[in-house]
Amino acid sequence: MSDAKTAEARPAPRRRGAARARILDAAARRFYADGVAATGIDTITAEAGVAKMSLYNNFESKADLVRAYLQARHEEWLDLYRRRLADAQGPHEAVLAVFDAYADHARLAYEHGFRGCGLLNAAAELPSGHEGRTVVRRHKEEVEEILAGHLRELLPGREETIRATAEHLAFLLEGAIVRAGLEGDGARVEHARDLAARLLDAL
Q1: What does the alpha-carbon distance between residue 159 and residue 156 come to, in Å, rounded to a whole number?
Q2: How many C-beta atoms lie closer than 10 Å to residue 197's C-beta?
Q3: pLDDT tens digits for the chain (203 residues)?
Q4: What three-state secondary structure class fits 5?
Q5: What 3-state DSSP class applies to 109?
Q6: CB-based contact 63:152 (threshold 8 Å)
Q7: Of 27, 93, 29, 89, nearest to 62 (Cα)?
């Protein structure tokens, strides 16, 4: 086959990238609204408006798509956090920016309402050893490390207190997001932010 014919047979990078984005967006909506296990490949391709072959041209398997979805949600939260951090004045507000980013995530438009942390929801469905659970664990570890980093600016030289407080805040945040998911709104996360502010004031 000539180089020209080979080039014609190969999918255009822009078209392939657009198809991948549509598939990932559709998967994100369905996985969050209906759950990972309940959402089949046919449902995703129908919502994305692509052929099943297009999905497998972009993702090796459903497990690969789940991993990509979880990574995308992680990046989505990081973007919200960075926006909040840009307006923070000092380490005290930087810590609270983490809580604000979780509240912002809860305020996003969801098809069937807010159901809590999409990462934790997915992890609860995945078997032990699944790569997706590793993605979720790393996200939660990164959030705690972000908190610790801001606390180091606030409490220089007090590493034991920093680690303990970062863990405390992470537990407060995760507990709040679980309750918020059960109740269908972000009020618990906003309350957790107030509790975190009081904790910081007492340090």
Answers
A1: 8
A2: 15
A3: 444 444 444 455 555 678 999 999 999 999 999 999 999 999 999 999 999 999 999 999 999 999 999 999 999 999 999 999 999 999 999 999 999 999 998 888 677 778 899 999 999 999 998 889 999 999 999 999 999 999 999 999 999 999 999 999 999 999 999 999 999 888 999 999 999 999 999 99
A4: helix
A5: coil
A6: no
A7: 27
For residues 181 and 107, what is the distance between their CA atoms, to the nearest angstrom?
Answer: 11
- What is this structure's pTM? 0.86
DSSP state of 112: T
Q: How many CB atoms lie within 10 A of CB 60?
A: 10
Q: Side chain identity at 186, as an amino acid letter?
A: G
The structure tokens 């046919």 sit at 42
Nearest to 140 by CA among 196, 187, 77, 79: 77
Residue from 41, 60, 61 nearest 51 by CA? 41
